Amino acid sequence: MRPTTPTVLTIAGSDPYGGAGIQADLKTIHALGGYGFSALTAVTAQNSQGVQQVEALAAETLHHQLQALFEDVQIDAVKIGMLANAELIDVVATTLQRHPTSAVVLDTVLVSSSGHPLLAADAVSILVEKLFPLADVITPNLPELNHLLDRAPETPADDLVEIEKALCEMGVQAAVLKGGHSGETDAAADILIQPTRGVKSEPKRFSSPRVSTTHTHGTGCVFSSAIATELAQGRTLEEAVGNAKRYLTAWLSQSEALYFHYHDSSTAK
Ligand code: PLP
User: Fold this and answer.
1) Ligand 1 within 6 A of 141 CB?
2) Per the structure, how many domains does the chain have?
3) Residue 1 domain-assigned (yes or no)
4) CA of 198 to the centre of ligand 1 (A)
5) How far is the CA of 143 from the centre of ligand 1 (A)?
């Protein structure tokens, strides 16, 4: 008998600080009622100050992790995060072609918010070519969207028709354009567009009051893992994005308190 707990595989990098990467993904999947499997792409050294070092794993090492899982367990959704380089992208694309999964969420991780590259510059076009058509939804933030569309970094995501057309040409089925980096001060609005659905699919806006905090490390990882876990539970994409956004807003609201808790020396044993 199939267990009722939905399973989510995260393919991502390790963040020892636990706010982003595979650690954040597994916590999110668990919090939302899923069972998390993981395959590691890279080991980073980082903390609240930023990323100090990145070591990508060998393509063969990722291949063996994925093979071990896909040969053995049922996977209801896949979340893809940091991929580091073209060789690792290739392994993920080949695996997903061999083992089609009902829900694939691709977080387009390019550079950390502290400025450290998490994907080699020459691998961005490979990500587009090999993984965009295999993903059910991609989740770029504004700087990532502008990089992918070859536009100036600060360009607002206003021209949805143009964006939709450009993403469609890249094989994107659906995208959540994240508004966290927009200039809006009161609200944080994410926009779901579904280019391949054509004119019938109007962009859907998900807005919430902006949480005032500088502790946003890992936001993209938590959001994309939450979407994957919701999809694994059989929700529609619109429901999944709405529920993931509600979870993320609650998560961000307590991020400041958590930060002070684990940086406060008086709590150390
Ligand atoms: N480290 C890892 C392993 C990540 O996967 C990511 C984002 O996906 C980051 C760091 C960057 O986190 P942030 O830019 O939110 O600080």
Assistant:
1) no
2) 1
3) no
4) 33
5) 14
